[in-house]
């Protein structure tokens, strides 16, 4: 099944570069490009891409606002935000806006393609480097906590939630807990239902806000 991708960036060279790299993949098709957030919102409604590759700093409507509008219009939309180390202050805001994950702008062709595949499959893409900085940002902001809902989770579900928040994939969680990957998927599904969350990325946000993950933990 071909994954349809919309590339959103105000720099033509970046758009063209990503388009060439992704277009070379047999299972990925670039169905369109947008030069700003406003055009991105319009093209998502028109083209219905599986994944939106979204830059943050753009004219007219930035990537954060565009992501918020896209997800508000379609709760199943998957937005993969492009970030660099000097944009880490936006990571928390983008997650709250509904982004499905993050990819560093200097990612290799294989990392870019794999990132698109991961997000298309409904997994959260939080690179370890981004995750660490995200935790620090939550600590700095003193984000609101939601301890009451944590009590709805079993001990094992809480353990899985923490690993999800640390950016671990299902296979990595399975190896860590010495259980089948299908068991991990079941735990993740139950966590999302119990907490009323739409995906793993929202689960990660919840874990940070509930204080389950800390800068030193």
From TrEMBL:
<feature type="domain" description="Response regulatory">
    <location>
        <begin position="4"/>
        <end position="120"/>
    </location>
</feature>
<dbReference type="InterPro" id="IPR016032">
    <property type="entry name" value="Sig_transdc_resp-reg_C-effctor"/>
</dbReference>
<dbReference type="InterPro" id="IPR001789">
    <property type="entry name" value="Sig_transdc_resp-reg_receiver"/>
</dbReference>
<dbReference type="InterPro" id="IPR039420">
    <property type="entry name" value="WalR-like"/>
</dbReference>
<keyword id="KW-0597">Phosphoprotein</keyword>
<dbReference type="Pfam" id="PF00196">
    <property type="entry name" value="GerE"/>
</dbReference>
<protein>
    <submittedName>
        <fullName>DNA-binding response regulator</fullName>
    </submittedName>
</protein>
<dbReference type="Pfam" id="PF00072">
    <property type="entry name" value="Response_reg"/>
</dbReference>
<feature type="modified residue" description="4-aspartylphosphate">
    <location>
        <position position="55"/>
    </location>
</feature>
<dbReference type="GO" id="GO:0006355">
    <property type="term" value="P:regulation of DNA-templated transcription"/>
</dbReference>
<feature type="domain" description="HTH luxR-type">
    <location>
        <begin position="146"/>
        <end position="211"/>
    </location>
</feature>
<dbReference type="GO" id="GO:0003677">
    <property type="term" value="F:DNA binding"/>
</dbReference>
<keyword id="KW-0804">Transcription</keyword>
<dbReference type="GO" id="GO:0000160">
    <property type="term" value="P:phosphorelay signal transduction system"/>
</dbReference>
<keyword id="KW-0238">DNA-binding</keyword>
<keyword id="KW-0805">Transcription regulation</keyword>
<dbReference type="InterPro" id="IPR000792">
    <property type="entry name" value="Tscrpt_reg_LuxR_C"/>
</dbReference>
<dbReference type="InterPro" id="IPR011006">
    <property type="entry name" value="CheY-like_superfamily"/>
</dbReference>
<dbReference type="InterPro" id="IPR058245">
    <property type="entry name" value="NreC/VraR/RcsB-like_REC"/>
</dbReference>
């Amino acid at each position: 099944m071909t994954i349809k991708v919309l590339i959103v960036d105000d720099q033509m060279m970046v758009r063209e570069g990503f388009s060439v790299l992704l277009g070379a993949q047999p299972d990925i098709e670039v169905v369109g490009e947008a030069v700003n957030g406003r055009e991105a919102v319009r093209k998502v409604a028109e083209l219905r891409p599986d994944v939106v590759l979204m830059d943050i700093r753009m004219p007219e409507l930035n990537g954060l606002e565009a992501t918020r509008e896209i997800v508000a219009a379609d709760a199943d939309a998957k937005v993969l935000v492009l970030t660099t180390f000097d944009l880490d202050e936006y990571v928390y805001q983008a997650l709250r806006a509904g982004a499905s994950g993050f990819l560093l702008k200097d990612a290799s062709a294989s990392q870019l393609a794999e990132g698109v595949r991961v997000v298309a499959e409904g997994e959260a893409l939080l690179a370890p480097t981004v995750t660490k900085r995200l935790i620090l940002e939550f600590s700095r902001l003193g984000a609101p906590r939601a301890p009451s809902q944590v009590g709805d989770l079993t001990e094992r579900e809480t353990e899985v939630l923490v690993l999800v928040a640390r950016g671990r994939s299902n296979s990595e969680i399975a190896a860590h807990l010495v259980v089948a990957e299908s068991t991990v998927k079941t735990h993740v599904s139950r966590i999302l239902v119990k907490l009323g969350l739409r995906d793993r990325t929202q689960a990660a946000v919840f874990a940070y806000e509930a204080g389950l993950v800390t800068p030193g933990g």
